[in-house]
Amino acid sequence: MKYIFDENIAPQVAKGLIAFGKDVGHITDHMPSGSKDVDVLKYVGERGYALITRDGRIYKNPAEKQAIHKFGVGVFELIGKDMSLWDRVKQVVRGWENIEDKANSTEPPFVFKVSRAGRKLERLL
User: Fold this and answer.
1) Residue 61: CB atoms within 10 Å
2) Which end of the chain is more exposed for a tag (fewer CB within 10 A), N or C?
């Protein structure tokens, strides 16, 4: 499965994982900056990708929740508002094996919250 990082996560996070051979990308490499969340969800879902985002409302907003279901999107929400880039990288790296495991063992649509430390995933949808 390929993973796409949302615009609210620094592109350097995706680039770092790419350097280690992970099949990831950043949404701004595929869509214009500022694209609507519903359009991002459609793009990701139609390609069978999973979205990694910091947007904690993405599964609560009715239109976005509908898009998650309609396009069969798997979403991983990285919690933690005021994290440095380095702390965000640690969160992703620590949680990566769990993210891959859940993505490969859970039929979309789904939303998992990734803990601040990256070690725990909680299913939200």
Assistant:
1) 14
2) N
What does the alpha-carbon distance between residue 28 and residue 40 come to, in Å, rounded to a whole number? 10
DSSP E strand boundaries for 21-66: 24-26, 50-53
What is the gyration radius of the CA atoms in the chain, in angstroms? 13
List of domains in the chain = 3-123 (3.40.50)
Residue 27, amino acid: I
Task: State the pLDDT at residue 81.
Answer: 85
Q: Nearest to residue 98, comparing CAs of 120, 113, 116?
A: 120
Average pLDDT over residues 6-27: 96
Task: Report the pLDDT averaged over residues 4-16.
Answer: 96
Give the separation between CA 65 and CA 15, rounded to whole angstroms: 28
Q: What strand order describes the sheet that includes 110-114?
A: 24-26, 3-5, 50-53, 74-78, 110-114, 121-123
Phi, psi for 8 (deg, rounded to 5)? -80, 10
Place of tokens 């640690």: 90
